[in-house]
Amino acid sequence: MLKKFLPLLSSLIFIGILSITVSTIKKLGYHITYSVTSSMPQGFYLVIPAKKIAHYDIVEFIPPPSVLDFIKEKHWVPQSGSIIKYVFAIPNDHVCIHDEAIWINSKKIGPVYKFYAQNKLLPQTKICGKLTEDQYLLLSTENKRSFDGRYFGTISSKRILGRAVSIFVN
Predict the structure, then answer these.
(1) Among 155, 169, 165, 168, which Cα is nearest to 31's?
(2) Phi/psi of residue 129, each to 5°?
(3) Taking the C-alpha atoms of 74, 75, 79 and 80 in order, what is their torsion angle to the nearest 10 degrees?
(4) The predicted structure's pLDDT at residue 151
């Protein structure tokens, strides 16, 4: 009789252990996210707590509320509001938007557009100077029309959920 229920019992034990493991990992600040936008490689990322943020790290973050409302209205982000981008500038880097382009440490990085569609304005940010101790500029080079720091400015580390490590991406 016990042999009959052994596969079911084994499955329940496995599911229980898996559930406890996932719960523990989540409490430690780890989680998996899926990037669906064309501005970053699409796929699954493991998000780990970020003790130190460096140039070209990939991070998951929540934009400021005013920006979040704008991009949710356009359906450019998932309902969670989290986005994944590369860290292009960190504290003490010099960032400037001028001549319809973004410049980091005197190097032209990419264009800054005024419109996302005909007669549909993008938010404009004014940045020109050295980033302070808690400012990070997040961009994407995968898609030159990516909605990123060129339009919403810098992000505080408080809005960064963690470093994103690709698990399975296109």
Answers:
(1) 165
(2) 160, -175
(3) -70
(4) 92
Q: Among 53, 69, 76, which Cα is nearest to 158's?
A: 53
Six-digit token string for 144: 């030159």
Residue-level pLDDT at 1: 60
- Give the DSSP letter of residue 116: E
pLDDT confidence bin for 52, thresholds 50/70/90: very high
- Per-residue tokens: 129: 């100077």
In the chain, where the domains are located? 31-169
What is the side-by-side order of every strand in the sheet holding 107-111? 107-111, 101-104, 94-98, 128-130
pLDDT reported for residue 38: 81
Tokens of 54: 């460096």
Angle made by CA atoms 29, 35, 36, in degrees to the nearest 5: 155
How far apart (Å, rounded) are the C-alpha atoms in residues 46 and 28? 13
**DSSP string of 44-112, one letter each residue:** EEEEE--SS--TT-EEEE---HHHHHHHHHTT-S-TT--EEEEEEE-TT-EEEEETTEEEETTEEEEE-
Whether the full predicted model's pTM is greater than 0.90, yes or no, is no
- Does domain 31-169 match CATH 2.10.109.10? yes
In whole angstroms, give the CA distance from residue 4 to residue 76: 51
pLDDT exceeds 80 at position 17: yes
